[in-house]
Amino acid sequence: MMLLSHSSSTTTTTTTTWRLAAAAPPPARSRRARLLPPRARAADTTTGVSGAADRAAEALLQSGLRPESLPRHVAVVMDGNSRWARARGLTPADGHKAGGRNLERIVGLSRAWGIRALTAFVCSRENLSRPKAEVDYMMGLSEWLIGDNIDKLSRQGIRLQVIGDATQMPASLRSAAEQADEATRHNSQLHVMLAICYSGRWDMVQACRELVREAQAGRLSPDDVDESLVAGKLATSAAGHGEFSCPDLVVRTSGELRLSNFLLWQSAYSEFFFTDKMWPDFGEAEYLGLV
Length: 291
Prior knowledge:
Layout: H1 46-63, E1 73-77, H2 81-86, H3 92-113, E2 117-124, H4 132-156, E3 158-163, H5 171-184, E4 190-198, H6 200-216, H7 227-233, E5 249-252, E6 271-274, H8 284-290
Parallel strand pairs: 1-2, 1-5, 2-4, 3-4, 5-6
Helix pairs in contact: 1-3, 3-4, 4-5, 6-7
């Protein structure tokens, strides 16, 4: 997935070439930590998926954690991909691709451990002000990986939805998101929401607009508006109004200590965890240490 840093800085090098086909794979990792490269996923089998889930479940058991004590909804700000790449002499595109593969891994762990919802901040509306080549790469890689994972997610019983300002997304990305939503809508093992072109302020504004429209249509009076009604119009209400729409835990990687306009309403009572780990290095041990 194209996972941009959510820092306020928009500095980029003029020599960066944002080409999907040219993105090199991330450095080799151990067999246990390595994810299937995108082009090799056709070889993924149900047995392989089950084996990975069994190993993740065993790790949870050995940790002493009880499934009922785990957070129901985890939200992640996946930051630090470009810095991770620079430290290894790679391009920012390599870092974003490695970050996308790590998201796949975290999705698998979440499902195996019984977490019910996972919201991942892919890019903010503010990121759209970055250079056009970078934004185009972000959208293209997001679309590619969504489409590339639909069958795998369906086999695993995972629901996938894209939340955010659809008017800012390319038509092809909107189409991929709609296909993923339709193909996985009856799955219930884990609800994954990818926040693309998303911001917390935008989310609250669009919720208010929807309530105003209902009031203008005579279906709602001002006195009817309460927290529950507002929450029901937020993008994350897709995960189940009242049950899983608000994260119990918000994680941000890369050492940044702010939300960067992510789930502002929904995180009012969330626990927060900030780590210096760059997102591609945020693995099973780090995740297990939080849940």
